[in-house]
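This part of the workshop introduces the protein records we will be handling. An example says more than a description, so a record of this kind follows.
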Amino acid sequence: MVMVKVPYEDIIAKIEEEKGIGKEEIESKIKAKLNQLSGLISKEGAAHIIANELGVNIFPQTSGKLKIKNILPGIRNLETVGRVAQIFEVRSFNSGSRSGKVGSFMLGDETGKIRVVLWNDQVDKLSSLKENMIIKIAGAYVKENNGRKEIHLNDMSKLILNPEGETVPEIQLGSARQRKKISELTENDENIEILGTIVQVFDMKFFEVCPQCNRRTKPREEGFVCNEHGKIEPAYSYLLNLFIDDGSDSIRTVFFRNQVQSLTGKTNEEILAGKDDSSVLEPVKMDLLGKIIKVVGRVNKNEMFERLELVANLVDPNPNPDQEIKRLQEEIKQKEESSAEEQPIEPSAEQKEDILPVDSIEPVDEDKNAP
């Protein structure tokens, strides 16, 4: 049996689409169900119940060749076809007894985009990929990573380039980045860029991961166990939380391992040295305070604290001041031009001469031509 997970937002969207009910009304029903069954179900569970009560089937096709919108975490032996939208760099990892390579690319079709992750020998296939190329994936599995679904290829998975007989409509290549003020951010914003000052830095958090797939793992009676690779000797990864302020508002921002290294300029080994002695990283925290950085990421909603948070995908720890000043000047110019277009047009001197003063206009007798 395939154990798939339908994200909460997807359940809401499915109900909206099929029943024409607004999001606020749906969430009100879910909240009432949570209160009714207090402590017995999660928010996602309540959403499932509401969908069922309304006769909405939220589980799409989970076998055969799937469109990207129908790909869900938990699906195994996945088959899908799409175009290469964006290719990312390959990176190496070394976690004690294990080392290897990992790479990824974005796959797209007419229904959406999804990240595809390749490990070790599969990574070599990235060099043959080109943007807009049609590819077919078979025998892959789907997992959730920080709230986003990903396709993962293991040693048994197949990546077929230019598969015969397969067609996919043209898609938008790459990913358009959008600069926003923090006050303008909304839930589920993707590929958003902000520029701001670090005003608060928290302690680094370390956690155990599988050295093969880098998936988070927790201790059990028999030791650390990865769902994919069984009992393991864990490696360690880390994340850093901090607040960024841009004058319009501030937002808590989460940086994971690669972004932490880019942000701090420290190597993996230097950061791991602070795992058992937090004082090692105190100078790093102090150096970050007051630093102006540029961050690209996605916006999530922290349900516990009812606030928006930014998850960093890329970070520029030293944005070019000349470029930023030029960009600011262009924004100011655009606003001034937009404001000028909205102002009433002032008549010319010649036009003013043709305009009679108000007191010279003869009043109209509305009853003069009345029958």
About this structure: The two ends are 88 Å apart (CA to CA). The longest strand covers residues 98-109. The CA atoms of residues 15 and 56 lie 6 Å apart. The chain has a mean pLDDT of 82.
